[in-house]
Write a structure and sequence with these properties.
- With about 50 residues, the chain is mainly beta.
- It has a domain at about 10-40.
- It has one helix spanning about 5-10, and strands at about 10-15, 25-30, 30-35, 40.
- It has a 4-stranded antiparallel β-sheet with strand order 1-2-3-4.
- Strand 1 (about 10-15) and strand 2 form a beta hairpin.
- InterPro entries: HVO_2523-like (IPR049701).
- This is Small CPxCG-related zinc finger protein.
């Protein structure tokens, strides 16, 4: 029943848009990752 869905359960899609290309970013742990640009925001970023 859950075969193949492990990848989608760990990554949330449709969060904030990428500031560079406007694509929805993936949320992984405490990082927002753009599919084209890689990690954009991290929880260590104090300005966010």
């Amino acid at each position: 029943m859950t075969d193949g869905s492990a990848e989608t359960s760990s990554d949330e899609v449709g969060g904030r848009p990428c500031p560079h290309c406007e694509q929805p970013m993936y949320k992984r742990h405490c990082k927002y990752v753009c599919p084209q640009h890689g990690v954009i925001y991290d929880c260590a970023d104090t300005f966010w």
